[in-house]
Design goal:
Blueprint (H helix, E strand, L loop, with lengths): L19 E2 L18 E2 L6 E2 L30 E10 L2 E10 L20 E2 L7 E9 L1
Antiparallel strand pairs: 1-3, 2-6, 4-5, 5-7
């Protein structure tokens, strides 16, 4: 779950103030602009705006986005382990193990940019792809 922040416009410069959301569907849009294979549009920047700037006569404005109100891309991961014992001698055996992480090689997208401004709504990373490891152990 993610919280969209407004970029620190309310005078504190802490970059923690929440953005203003217009209430429409926040997902989709064209956050990446031109179609690119290195970027996926996730949050629509046209559905958000920054907080009004702090002035002496106005109170601080923190936006209307509730903490943790947006969800990220779905994460799917199947891990598999296979092992077999091979007897060598009485009381001595080899254990062979193969472990597969994300065996179906499902693409898991990273966190979208949640600070309103440059990079907002863009996903530019993924989690690791399939990982395979083997082990051989001598057991007595």
């Amino acid at each position: 779950m993610y919280t969209v922040t407004g970029g620190g416009n309310s005078g504190t410069n802490l970059n923690r103030e929440r953005a203003v959301w217009n209430g429409q569907n926040p997902y989709g849009g064209t956050a990446c602009g031109v179609v690119s294979t290195a970027c996926k549009s996730y949050l629509d920047p046209t559905k958000f705006s920054t907080n009004p700037s702090y002035t002496v006569n106005l109170p601080l404005s923190y936006g209307n986005v509730v903490k943790g109100s947006f969800v990220g891309p779905q994460y799917t991961d199947w891990d598999v382990s296979v092992m077999r014992y091979f007897p060598v001698d009485e009381g001595l055996q080899f254990q062979f193990r193969a472990e597969y992480f994300n065996v179906l090689n499902h693409t898991n997208f990273g966190v979208p940019g949640v600070t309103f401004g440059g990079g907002f709504g863009q996903i530019v990373s993924t989690a690791e792809a399939r990982i395979i490891q083997f082990a051989l152990k001598l057991r007595r």
